[in-house]
Amino acid sequence: MSEFPISAGPEAAVPPTDRTARTAPPVTALRQRLAELRGPAVPAKALDARALAALAANPGCRRRALLDGAGVDKSALAQALGSPSGFGQSQFAFVRGNAFEAKVKADGGAELLRLVHAHLGGGPEPTTGAPDGDPAAVRTPDLAAAGPEGRAARTALALREASGTRAWTLLDHPMLALDVAGSPAFLEPDAVVVHPDGHWTVVEIKSFPMIDGAADAAKVGSAARQAAVYALALQQVAGHLDPAPPVHHRVLLVCPKDFSNQPTAAVMDVRKQLSVTKRQLGRLTRIEDIADALPEGTTFDVERPAAELTEAVESVPAAYAPECLAACELAFHCRERARGDGEVTALGRSVRGELGALTAVEDVLAAARGTAGDPDDPAVAALRRAAGLRAEALAAAGGDTAC
Q1: What pLDDT score does 89 carry?
Q2: What are phi and psi of 52, to 5 degrees?
């Protein structure tokens, strides 16, 4: 990414004489605490939309909320714990994705805007090179600024200006800020388009193919959840304007067409994902509350001994489920602990939901055998009925009836 000129950032409104005399804003106690948790010399890892979508899908996991909020590199932490992660994007997929995105945005984003107009409308057909004042003209503002806070401020200013021009505006990799459990997260969507009619649209560019107009459902679902996070952050920016510009709940997904490298697009309605994300993020325990409950001196600095790191990680409650394997770098470590402790969650959230108050595998087996559990509990009754049917089937086959 290019360096942004200081004149575009928040410093621009401060006279030079005042700039030199001004002192840096004090660091909050929370930021100091989070820096101590990840290690004094360790830079914070940015919290992206993929991580936020995964966090919103599992709001009960305090471990992930704290580690992500503190900017801990979970891949490095998993390696130090002896449970290296298999989660993440391959280098080949990363390079391919960047090459496809560059193709989509070539020539001032002409092809990207053509797809936006074809699927969502919102004004006359965009024309790169049209004179200013023409509704078909395309603006591509410079979003340069110093640091993520400066870039987020510059993006907000560009969106405000674009809403008043009534022309096409393409924001390439804008920076959006979103409060997550008391800690700011800075998000960078592939693109945001402002239509001449005033609507704002999130654009997601993915390198997986769209064959015969359809793409892999799991990948599309993941893209929709990420886009919902961007739309939520964009709504917060729009809420500071009067009147607030409408943010499209219809997001444009751009992918390669069939087996070629030519871009095609489809519209994703993310109203459901947006509602779920908003609700789940609102339920997250605030990070400072989780941090305050930790033992004194707790740190996740990967330079510390493995035994000390393990104790630190285990001091934060986790909510493991098999879905974590596709979304969290610490999944292997948490799975091992969940299995070792006999937690029902290791079998999946659907199983956990069916078993009600029975949270341990040992309790489930005892309830099935009839040695524990309230017989009036529907889950216990169902387990005993299932155990009885199993015993009958095995007896008829001459098999072992032990649970």
Answers
A1: 63
A2: -65, -40
For the chain, the C-alpha Rg in angstroms (whole number) is 25
Indicate yes or no: pTM above 0.85. Answer: no
Helix ranges (H only) for 181-285 are 217-238, 271-283
Per DSSP, 46 falls in state P
- Strands ordered across the beta sheet of 263-269: 138-139, 168-172, 191-194, 200-205, 250-256, 263-269
Q: What is the pLDDT of residues 259-280, one digit of tens each?
A: 888 999 999 999 999 998 888 8
Question: Residue 265: CA atoms inside 13 Å, Cβ hemisphere, count?
Answer: 23
Q: What backbone torsions phi and psi does residue 190 show, to the nearest 5 degrees?
A: -60, -45
Geometric angle at alpha carbon 248, from 55 and 184, rounded to 5°: 35
Above 60 in pLDDT, residue 201? Answer: yes
Taking only the tens place, the pLDDT of each residue in 173-182 is 999 998 876 6
* Close Cβ partners of 258 (under 8 Å, ≥ 6 residues apart): 209, 210, 211, 212
400 band by pLDDT with thresholds 50, 70 and 90 = low
Q: Which residue type is seen at 110?
A: A
